[in-house]
Amino acid sequence: MNPIIDIYQSLNLDPKFFLPFGKYKAKIDLKVLDTLKDKKEGKLILVTAINPTPAGEGKTTTSIGLAQGLKFIGKSPILALREPSLGPVFGLKGGATGGGVSSVVPEEDINLHFTGDLHAITAANNLLSALIDNHIFQGNELDIQDVKWPRVMDMNDRNLRKIQTNLREDQFIITAASEVMAVLSLSSDIFDLKRRLDNILVGYNSKKQPVLVSDLGASDAMVLLLKEAMNPNLVQALEGVPTLMHCGPFANIAHGCNSLVATKLGLKLGDYLVTEAGFGADLGMEKFLHLKMPHLNHDVDAVVIVATLRALKLHGNAENYSEANMSALKEGMKNLEKHIENIKTFNLPFVISLNHFDNDPQEEVEYVLSWAKNNDYNIALSKGFKEGGKGMQDLANIVVNIAEKQSSFKPIYQPSKDIQKNIESIAKNIYGAKDVVFSNSALKDIETYQSLGWHLPICMAKTPLSLSGDGSLKGRPEGFTIEITKVRPSLGAGFLVAQTKGIMVMPGLNKTPRALRFKLQSDGEVREVDNDT
Predict the structure, then answer these.
(1) Helix crossing, 326-345 with 362-374: angle to 10°?
(2) Is residue 95 part of a domain?
(3) Domain shared by 395 and 248, yes or no
(4) Contact, 261 vs 227, CB < 8 A?
(5) Domain count, the chain
(6) What's the CATH code of the domain at 473?
(7) Which among 42, 110, 159, 202 has the fewest CB atoms less than 10 Å away?
(8) Looking at the DSSP assignment, which residues form a beta bridge with residue 307?
């Protein structure tokens, strides 16, 4: 690792905006954006994926590798990534800093406490919960009867999905899925942060009228906890690419993108800003395009869609997707084809990145490359995990080429007064659903929001493992129904969250969580080890 001051100095920014957190981490004062307002923006490259296996397909590794590949061919790239949550770090998926020589460092710091952003979000959220309950306890001047605000914790704990306090029934959700996370991610500055916090729905009074944070007067104290977290974090990829890693909303139950301010800053600082959207293109990419991009005032210049042989074989119903299985591979291409159709519907240029593993059968690799060529799709074999930027130069060259072409983004839907129609537009056009069924509770929610004039974009909460709402349906399912069980307002973030059947906003740990693999070593360091050793 280079000292982080060296990475900062390579950006040619005024030293007064440098906020160090030790030798290898820093924040950049958000006020720096005022000094860059007249600077031309670079190209925006969005990395997405097909529907993954439970362990993921290396989308972050590909993003880091691509940025290093752009540097290798002589460009000036910047990375903008999401911060990890402790839930996955100690659960199933693990950290979120890439892999091999396409990693962001210092990995352990980033995956654990980093610069304290997620702790600040957790504290601000729970301060509001405490103020709500205290207001009710102290006489309830606002007549709050139905509290809609949950508590949060940045850890998987299924037993906190419902709790009973002396005052009322409550719940915890994971910090990465919280509205405060979404608000911080989408705020353009500290004043926009306060405005969005003021708009958060606390609950309803006895007349069924909404009570907001502005009514409670809690936003300034929340800003106090969040003001340092508002500044983007600066770290580095292993090959020295400056990396802005800021905010970390999940993409299956939140909007799945890094912060607006980090993306804006990255566009000002590099020829190419490489960023990712969580999980598959049906989730993170769709949300980036509909929920985040309107605030950027900058269209996506190119989309990279990551695929792996193992995920393609999984979608071809292979029992063991790590083994050679040409028939399963051919069948699984239907999943990739659907995602490509969606990207085309948005009218965006794209390239397929086939993320390479050492044990990939060469015959299967050649099949995918030929399939893409026969369909006139851009494709590159990505070897960033093992070779870093050198192994990503083919992808980097294709990205540079297609990003020069004029893109003309077309949204799938325009938010209308018909909330059901907005939800159906995503489910039918992006997922391929035949029907959308709403629970009585969801219909009641929608009726309330429409009567209050909350005509907002939709953030879908859905399994990442399938185009459908059922994680067991692989490939390109057809004739399926999406079931909407709940619709909740995220007024501060500026969207409505439509929750599909089976989605939990507080995940649980798996049977053998990663937390149990960390062991204290004789040198005093704690490392992840195989449980058999």
Answers:
(1) 40
(2) yes
(3) yes
(4) no
(5) 3
(6) 3.10.410.10
(7) 159
(8) 354
Query: What predicted TM-score, i.e. pTM, was given to this entire model?
Result: 0.95
Say if residues 245 and 233 touch (Cβ distance below 8 Å): yes
Q: What is the DSSP letter of 406?
A: P
In this structure, are strands 272-276 and 77-81 parallel, antiparallel, or unpaired?
parallel
Residue corresponding to tokens 């983004």: 409
Q: Looking at residue 197, which CATH number applies to its domain?
A: 3.30.1510.10
- The DSSP bridge pattern shows strands 144-147 and 379-382 to be unpaired
Residue 304 and residue 221 share a domain? no
Q: Which long-range contacts (CB under 8 A, 24 or more apart) does 121-124 make?
A: 121/152, 121/175, 121/178, 121/180, 121/181, 121/184, 121/226, 121/229, 122/152, 122/153, 122/154, 122/175, 123/225, 124/180, 124/222, 124/225, 124/226
Choose the final residue of a domain: 187, 210, 226. Answer: 226
Same domain, 107 and 135: no
Residue 11 CB neighbours (<10 A): 18
Q: What pLDDT is attached to residue 96?
A: 87
Dist CA 217 CA 205 (whole Å)? 16
Structure tokens at 37: 């307002």
Read off the amino acid at residue 143.
D
Residue 391 lies in a domain: yes
Contact 73, 388 (CB under 8 A): no
Q: Which of 3, 62, 25, 36 is nearest to 308 (CA)?
A: 62
3-state SS, one letter per residue, for 379-403? EEEECHHHHHHHHHHHHHHHHHHHH
Q: What separation in angstroms does the CA of 520 have from each of 263, 512, 517?
A: 38, 18, 10
Per-residue model confidence as pLDDT tens digits over 125-149: 999 999 999 999 999 999 999 999 9
334 lies in the same domain as 391:
yes
Boundaries of domain holding 37 = 30-112+232-403
Measured from the Cβ of residue 167, the count of other Cβ atoms closer than 10 Å reads 12
Shared-domain flag, residues 187 and 299: no
Per-residue tokens: 427:
């489910």
- Residues across the chain: 533
Using a pLDDT cut of 90, give the percent of the chain over it: 91
